[in-house]
Amino acid sequence: MISEMEEVSEITVGETNMAAWLLGIQTIKIQPYHLPPLGPHDVKICIKALGICGSDVHHFKTMRCANFIVKKPMVLGHECAGIIEEVGSQVKSLQVGDRVALEPGISCQRCSLCRDGRYNLCREMKFSGSPPNNGSLANKVVHPANLCFKLPDNVSLEEGAMCEPLSVGVHACRRAKIGPDTNVLIIGAGPIGLVTLLAARAFGAPRIVIVDVDDYRLSMAKELGADEIVIVSTNIKDVGEEVVKIQNVMVSRIDVSFDCVGFNKTMSTALSATGAGGKVCLIGLARTELTVPLTSATVREIDVVGIFRYRNTWPLCIELLSTGKIDVKPLITHRFQFSQKGIEDAFQTSAGGGNAIKVMFNM
Amino acid sequence: MGKGGNSHEEEEENMAAWLVGLNTLKIQPFKLPPLGPHDVRVRMKAVGICGSDVHYLKTLRCADFVVKEPMVIGHECAGIIEEVGSEVKHLVPGDRVALEPGISCWRCDLCKDGRYNLCPEMKFFATPPVHGSLAHQVVHPADLCFKLPDNVSLEEGAMCEPLSVGVHACRRANVGPETNVLVMGAGPIGLVTMLAARAFGAPRIVIVDVDDNRLSVAKNLGADGIIKVSTNIQDVPEEVERICKEMEARVDVCFDCAGFNKTMTTALSATRAGGKVCLVGMGHNEMTVPLTPAAAREVDVIGIFRYRNTWPLCIEFIRSGKIDVKPLITHRFGFSQKEVEEAFETSAGGGSAIKVMFNL
């Protein structure tokens, strides 16, 4: 365990801002969180809804995620929405009382990637809940106003928090150029596979097949509108047979495959099942090295498109939710309060997977 | 195996170099199909040897294509029109032409979409079971024969085929005045890719290889930087550092013209966030590569298969002098049994042999 912080009473008392701090492996504690002063372009937000992401669970279980290592206590969480409590002196677009969804990552806006609009790849990115940056599972946070997006009346704060995972699906659909011509295969029916399903449908994909090892998740996918579902194994020897099944069920050629898992088997399936000239989007970042039949895919001019988080997706997500083109509410399967017991139960539930899709805090 | 011939059929019997068995080529008669209304008959003058031709000679297969019966070898070619079909308007006998090898179906969705190189019914010279063009004469669709300007030689015409691979790769990777390019491998494909990248405006090109001789050829052809690398995958991080230093800027596009785990690993690691890696070389089918960290930096892997709609541009590049392919032709042979055998041995030997060319 890394340096302990002073124990205080669990629930917020008076005006002390409290947050859920990751102190060590599987150790989270609600403790005071002193906010930075409000800059002229910042706002202070009362967080009302926050979802748990697989990466939060990963930090919780292992104190790291890929090359990001938790070296000191860190506030968890980044999928959130809340109500504006205070605005900085230069903020014109928002006012106190506004309901907003937050885009977590603060990029430098100076480097060539940022200036080129690909700010999600900024090397100086400060991303909430990614060490060493504190997250937003707290009573309040301070955040740049231009990363807070106002929610229409018919979009709830929980749906606002869902904009973050939904953004991954939206960004992937943009990079893969999903449209009325593209038949889509989605590998993995977890939260990311499901938001990708919703996004692909909203982008006009005519036919969507989704596969997973878990029946419950597949039935959820069917309810959410997948045209076909296929149960698959974890055995890489089954790839050949599963590809045939998938192609038969799609009927038409597979134009784009989204691997929302990121294992050898899932990428091999994607590369083999996708039609010549198609794309495979690697969204799931499970393993570093992958052993895959890359050459036989590239000789059919299949491109592998990498996906990292998202950029410029909140306005579109909010629009898709507001018009009803996308309904994310069924993905929220479990709700918890912001208390010591609440956060512990919530993380255990999320980590357990299975029928827990999105675990949401209501604060 | 092998076919006998009737030696007094015409004034001159058409002969070709047949792959009749493992490591066995024989010059034997090659009976041509009748000339269709949209076909032309071409007298071959220059034919280059490709790595795939050598692969078929040595193993009777290339990826999933297997040589099951005798097949004429060769596909990089140019020649002179001897006869034109009844509907052919744009070519006349005497015209000097370069040939695009692959005949696609023109009916399937991929063809209709312009991506005809991916046509599942593609009939490609010297990809079994289709006969190649290392012959005195071949019959070919007229719209796959491209007229050469006076200042483009027949050898340069034959070079349009390998050059097309480089041109197609540069198009797919969007090479332009802002893209710094890294090329893995300074063999024939690496070199034509480098020439194409320069012609597309790439400001800075670094090329790497394990072979000093090939690197010096690359330098002479205009590489901004050359780096000698090893075959040891442990050396990747150090080599990536050296590459980035030599580039003096970020690597925007990397062409892997070798296609091994090591070269792809280097490519994926060296290319900047948001950049592209083109897998041109076909080494092994299954590859073990750090695909995920690359995907997490949105480095895309672009697949390349042969080319499409590249001959006019290749011919223009050569005509205008933007590209000079002549230095790539390192060895020349005539069309006889002995020379055919020697030519393939030379090409198979690699090393200082870049492009081995037949003059017929």
From TrEMBL, chain A:
SMART domains: PKS_ER. Residues 24-361 form the Enoyl reductase (ER) domain. Its cofactor is Zn(2+). Belongs to the zinc-containing alcohol dehydrogenase family. Keywords: Metal-binding, Oxidoreductase, Zinc. InterPro entries: ADH-like_C, ADH-like_N, ADH_Zn_CS, ER, GroES-like_sf, NAD(P)-bd_dom_sf, SDH-like. It comes from the Eukaryota. This is Enoyl reductase (ER) domain-containing protein.
UniProtKB/TrEMBL annotation, chain B:
It comes from the Eukaryota. Its cofactor is Zn(2+). Residues 21-358 form the Enoyl reductase (ER) domain. SMART domains: PKS_ER (SM00829). The keyword Metal-binding applies. Keywords: Metal-binding, Oxidoreductase, Zinc. Belongs to the zinc-containing alcohol dehydrogenase family. This is Enoyl reductase (ER) domain-containing protein. It comes from Hibiscus sabdariffa. The lineage of its organism: Eukaryota, Viridiplantae, Streptophyta, Embryophyta, Tracheophyta.
